[in-house]
Each structure stands twice: as C-alpha cells, then as structure tokens.
Amino acid sequence: MSNTPFSEGIQSGRLKPAELAENFGDLHPRLDDHEALVAADRCYFCHDAPCMTACPTDIDIPLFIRQISTGTPEAAAKTIFSQNILGGMCARVCPTETLCEEVCVREVAEGKPVEIGRLQRFATDVLVDTGEHPFERAEATGKKIAVVGAGPAGLSAAHRLAGYGHDVTVYDARAKAGGLNEFGIAAYKSVDSFAEREVDWLLKIGGITVETGKALGDGLSLDALQAENDAVFLGIGLGGVNALGVDGEDKDGVDDAVDFIADLRQAKELGTLPIGRDVVVIGGGMTAVDAAVQAKLLGALNVSLVYRRGKDRMNASEFEQDLAASSGVRIITNASPKAVIGNGAVREIEFEYTDDDLKPTGQTVRLPADQVFKAIGQTLEGDGLPDLERGKIAVDGTGRTSVEGIWAGGDCATGGDDLTVTAVAEGRDAAEDINAHLSA
Amino acid sequence: MANLQSDFVGIKSPNPFWLASAPPTDKEYNVRRAFEAGWGGVVWKTLGSEGPPVVNVNGPRYGAIFGADRRLLGLNNIELITDRPLEVNLEEMARVKRDYPDHAVVASVMVPCEEDEWKRILPMIAETGCDGFELNFGCPHGMAERGMGSAVGQVPEYIEMVARWCKEATDLPVIVKLTPNITNILRPAEAALRGGADAVSLINTINSITNVNLDMMSPEPMIDGKGTHGGYCGPAVKPIALNMVAEIARNPETARLPISGIGGITTWRDAAEFMALGAGNVQVCTAAMTYGFKIVQEMISGLSQWMDEKGYESTADFVGMATPNVTDWQYLNLNHITKAEINQDDCISCGRCYAACEDTSHQAIAMSEDRVFTVKNDECVACNLCVNVCPVEGCITMRTLEPGDMDERTGTPVVADYGNWTQHPNNPMAKAAE
Prior knowledge:
The complex is a heterodimer.
Chain A: H1 17-23, H2 33-40, H3 50-54, H4 61-69, H5 73-83, H6 87-93, H7 100-103, H8 105-110, H9 116-130, E1 144-148, H10 152-163, E2 167-172, H11 180-183, H12 194-202, E3 208-212, E4 215-216, E5 219-220, H13 222-228, E6 231-234, E7 240-241, E8 254-256, H14 257-266, E9 278-282, H15 286-298, E10 302-306, H16 318-326, E11 330-332, E12 335-341, E13 348-354, E14 360-368, E15 371-374, E16 378-379, E17 388-389, E18 392-393, E19 406-408, H17 420-439
Parallel strand pairs in A: 1-2, 1-6, 2-3, 4-5, 6-19, 8-15, 9-10, 9-15, 10-11
Antiparallel strand pairs in A: 7-16, 12-13, 13-14, 17-18
Helix pairs in contact in A: 2-4, 2-9, 4-5, 4-9, 5-9, 6-9, 10-17, 14-15, 15-16
Chain B: E1 6-8, E2 11-13, E3 17-19, H1 28-37, E4 41-47, E5 62-66, E6 72-77, H2 86-99, E7 104-109, H3 115-126, E8 132-136, H4 150-153, H5 156-169, E9 174-177, H6 186-194, E10 199-202, E11 206-208, E12 211-213, E13 218-220, E14 230-233, H7 238-250, E15 259-262, H8 268-276, E16 279-284, H9 286-291, H10 295-310, E17 338-342, H11 352-360, E18 365-367, E19 373-375, H12 385-389, E20 396-400, E21 406-407, E22 412-413
Parallel strand pairs in B: 3-4, 3-16, 4-7, 7-8, 8-9, 9-10, 10-15, 15-16
Antiparallel strand pairs in B: 1-2, 5-6, 6-14, 11-14, 12-13, 17-20, 18-19, 21-22
Helix pairs in contact in B: 3-5, 5-6, 8-10
C-alpha cells in the first residue's frame, strides 16, 4: 500500500489516514455558543421575513434566531422541528445561499446574510444531542399507514402521521433508513453518523415501525399495501440513473456517481476506497459536485467536472461550484460527452463543445480518464405506479396521486425542486392531508 | 486646527476631556497612563478621612447590560471610595501633579458631614498641588448608608452647608458633584450655588439593579447570594444626564453656574452634545473602563474635526449654544408639520417600520406584496418611531411641509405662523389672541 495521487489506474489508499480524516471533516463545523450569539445578534427580526417565505418548510426563522439570542436554543430547535422534523440535516445540506440566506435583508444590504443555516445547525444540534424528543404522540387512532421510502419525504410524513396517533410502517429497499440523507450526500456535510442519529431521534415519537430491505416489486405490492392500510404514502425517490448514450459507456471504470457517493458514506475506512488518478465527472448538479469534490479529497490527481451547458445553467449552486473549484476540481462547461475510449477499461473520454442551445460546434477535446462518474440525472423506477407526469408521479398540492388513498412526495413526485427540504415539506403536507382525510 | 485647550473655573487642561472620579483614577499608575494616552485631566478617585480606609466587597463589584454583539450599554457598580490610605493617595497625587503641571488634577472628597472634617482635610489635600476639589455628594451605594455621598446630595440644605465650609477652607475651585437620585435637579444645583460652589458636575450614578440571577434568585452583582443596588452609568444614562445638564443650564437662577458634564460620554459627539447644552467640559468613566484610555484619541480628533468644520476656534465658542433651544412642551410649534419619508434606494425591506407602525402606532405605512414600504401621508402623525426602528441610518427621514402644503392627514394647509399649546383653542387655559 504505497499508492499516491500519482499512482495510475483506480487505486485505494492514495492519501494517508490523517489526510483523509482532515479532508472529510465537517465542512461547516457547528458554531460554538459564542459564535452563535454573535451570529444571532445580526438578525433584524424582520416583519413577515423574506427568509421564512423562501424556506420550503416555512420555518419561523426570526423567531428561532431570537430564541437562540435569548439563551434558549432548545426552544429554537422546537420552532424549527415543528415545521421541519429533519431541520438538522437541512441545516447541513440546504443550499441556503439560494433560499433563506439569498433573500436575507442583510444579504441585500451588505452582501453578508445572517448565517441562518449555521444557526439552525446550532439549535438543532443542541436539542438532538440531548437525546430528548420534543414532541408527544397523540392518543392512538388505530389507523394504519404505509410509507414506502425512508428518505426525507417518507420520514417527514411518518413523523407527522405518528404524531397524530396513527400507526406507521416505513419500508425501505436499503438496509438502513435515511434515504439520500444516509446514502446520497457528501460525507463532509454529514459527519459523525448524523443521518443515522437523526433517524433514531426522529423515531422516538413512537408509533413508527421501520422495515428495511423491502421495495415495491421486491417484497411489496401497492395493492397489498392499500388493502392492509388506511393510506399509503410513496416517497421512493429516483432509483434509476440516466445513461450517457455514447459509445464505450459500458467500459470498466465508467460508474454511477450515486453509487460512489453511497459507498463513500458507508465506508468504514476511507483508505480502502479505490479512486482513479484522472477522474471525469459528467453532470452539473449537486450529485456531480459531491462526486467530483470527494474524488479529489480521496486523492485523485486530476478531477474534471464537465457540464454540457453554461455555468449559469448548472443546478449546483454557486456556493457548490466555488467549493468544487477551491477543492481543485476543474469545471468545464458547454461540452457534451461523445465517446468513451479505451481497451476494456476507460482511458480517455471525448467531448464535443456545444453552444448554449446544445448545438455541437464541431470542436472536440479528449480528457485522460481512468474513472468516469455519470451524474446526469436520475429517473423514477417501478411499475404499476399512479399516473406519471414528465416522468414523475403526478400529485396535487397536498400530495394526492391519481389513485384514491395513495399520496406521494419527494423526488419521485412532481412539484418543487429535488431538494431535501422540499421533500420534507411535501411529506409533511401530505401527512396533514392524509390525517385530515382519515379524520373526516 | 481647533484649539481644544480648556479652562474650567480656572482649572486649565490641554483638552476638555477629564477622567471622572472612579476606578480609572484610583492610582498614580493609572493616572500617568491616562495622561500619556491624552486625557486632559483627572478627578482622582474619592478620598476619605484619615485612618483605616474603607473596605470593598471581595466578590463582583460590577454588573452590566448589553446591546447586540454584547456591546456594553450600562454598567453598575457597588465599589466604594478609595480603599487605599489617604497618605498614599496624597503622595501619588503630588508626584503626578509635579510631573504633569499642565494637566488638571482635581481631588474628589467625601468625609462625614462635620465642619471639622471638611476643614481639616481640604488644606491637607491642597498641599499636593491639586487644581481643585470635587465634593462627592453623589455615590448612591454603601457610603450613603453612612450619611455621605448621595445622602448629602439629596438634601439641598446639606449641600449648601458643606459647600460653604469648603469654600471657607480653600481658595481652590470647589465643584459639587450632584446625584441624579432626586426628583428635581434644580434644588441641589441651586443649593450648591448658594453655598458658593464654583461649579457643579453631573450626573453621578443612578440607583440600579442591572440583572437578577434566576438560579440564585438574587440581584446582580451577587455577593454570596445577596445583592444591593449599585450606581448605574454608561451610554444608557446619557439621555438622563443630558436632560439634567440642560435643566440647570436653562434655569435663570443657575444659568451662570458652570457645569462639568458626566454621564455615558463615549465619543467626541457625546462630549460635544453635553457641551452644546451648557457643560464647560466633560468627564468620562465607563467608556474608558470598557475600551481603555485610548478612546480619548478619537474624542480629540473627532471634536477637532467637527470644530474645524463648524469654524469654532475654541470650545467656549459652542458651549451652551443649544441651551436656548431647550424649552417646555407648551412652547413647541404645533403648526410645524412633518411626514416620514422612506428612501427606497436605501430601504432593505426588513419591514420593521411597518411592524412598529401597524402594531403600535398609527397604521401609516403601507406594505406591498413585493415588500415595498411607503408612508401613508394621510395617516402619518410624524411620530418618528419608524426612523428610530429602521436599521439603516438615514433611510427614513422626516420631511418638513412648507407653508401652503396640504397636510393630507388633517386636510388643512400648513400655516406659516407659529402656534403653541398656550394659544391653542383646545387648551382651556389658552390666552387666545382674540
């Protein structure tokens, strides 16, 4: 084991354990008590605050910040959790720079918003670390609800429904609950097994049973779930990965970015994870950035992120783009993959430059690559689902699908951006509608 | 450049900024550092009688309240007068005065209300070469329980009596330091004048409890589970002090009594405000205790710059210039009409003006769907609350309506004539010019 960033091919152990530990440390460590008070003091307590409006879960941000500044972070956390039970994870992964912090009046006035995300992390950590769950379950109603998918949407729906006294069973295909929080987020955004701890803490409401290793078509059927339950909520995410559709895509070394990210999150020893020397990530979203940055942090020598459109069209926020650039990732825009070249395994990948309307320009470039990660979007998988619309389960504003008794939310359903916070809001709102429906 | 040289009742100092009698002036070491930093004078920490000095508590002496970012706004103390032997203080004062002959060294004194005591100690202190005396009739804690400090300052007859004794005992200027813990500041000021005092200084600290420890259920600062009221000072008391200075300065009986202004002075601007209301010089304590002696550099540069900009050559040029504009409510011009105006370029859309006006005032600010805030001229009474709660300085201002302009709230045009309450038809006591 004497690999370095210069070692050719896909190799593990390019960096020393100490370097890896440093690279994968907390991206934004929790504010300490003093830092939190200083940050909280900057909030103006705006009337009908723009930050609240920008938050997909409508957290009362001025109120929770005021509660921090008066020395009651536990009360602040309860304010957050009452709107967003996954407020701890959202504090870590929300693109706050395009949501609450973008519209903070201090961003408008000074270019420096109140650090809402980090304050939310502070408050929620204080409460989660106590191990205490702040909500009590209502008297049992005897109603049964199946939630398929233990990701942000499913967990959010399950918690709200359990709180109303319903009995909830949450199913998930993976061996562990958490969904993308557990498997799909860069490791440096959720250190110390936070996703797992958050799920354990959330389940303390009671009335929720988690069954892992079960998915629609693999131990579960929608018909049976409907027959056995009073309502069904689908939060199954997007299980499929889009293909590049170019020659040579099947060569060794061409992998899905989501698998790489999941393996990384579950790895006990980062030093055992193999990574290429010359890595090319294709895509322009958060997944692409997470994969590219982590490839670099694992010790890849050259990492390029290639996106077919312009920088301004990238789904990854400017903060994420900057994070990639400052980590040493080279961002190439307006280039579409044309062919994967290599003898058995990828050796190079050819791109053709495109204009802003994706029209090929005829100019090409070849990048050396011993590993290629595809991150060009995910797709809904499954048969016999309610009606779809543009590839997703069609829902109304409260998550109702085309099938009576089935609700859906999160990435698998129409409506909203594919963000953790949006999924939480959709799960919560569907749960409210389910409860209203069952109580009617 | 403006000349900051100061002459206060014959006491000369290179600038009008003195350190007030307090912990910063308790020792030669501190006072030398203060003079090196640029302070024009000091009032030495209050001296008491000969013999064993007073003792202080051995727990916390100070409590505080804070603004955003833990900015200290108010400080409270339960420290007594100097707890060092009189002779040590006198030796140090003499050495300092010898080495800094151009700086003001004033001795603050507090001894029991007996003629002998005062008449014995003043000449003894005068041997240090000090420039004058300040009689501490102000401290509201501890010493007041022993019949000194504010216990004297709250009884005008005692003030007059002691001031007279002191004037009989010394040729040096005698300044009487007043307590604000009274209902009318004019009574003690008039008493000081009758007693022959050369000046008054004010304000001393205000009776206060800054905080309550909710675990121990005790006032702070807490000494072994108990607390006592202390003396409150710092930026939070400045408005109270300014008013008391103005009351003395505009009162015909006391108008000629020189004033040394004290109370929350932190910047050159604070100092200029006290002086504009009639203070001949100023004394500072809390700001120095919060930030150190260096703050005087800003006070010197700021006051100089402002005086240059205004064309004032010496501080005497502007002392008292604002005093004639302090009046009674009944003489305010009721025909002067203003309206709030929000500068949309400066507005950051926080909506605090809206919340304040809508919830607590006159519903005179409109909020659009896209968070544009505008003043409703037909509702605005010009209360100024929006100006005060706006986090952006200068964003909301009060625009004065010109004679002939329509006041949309009352539906009547603005008149050019001055008209006050004494002439107003709603006033049953009005002396209408009919």
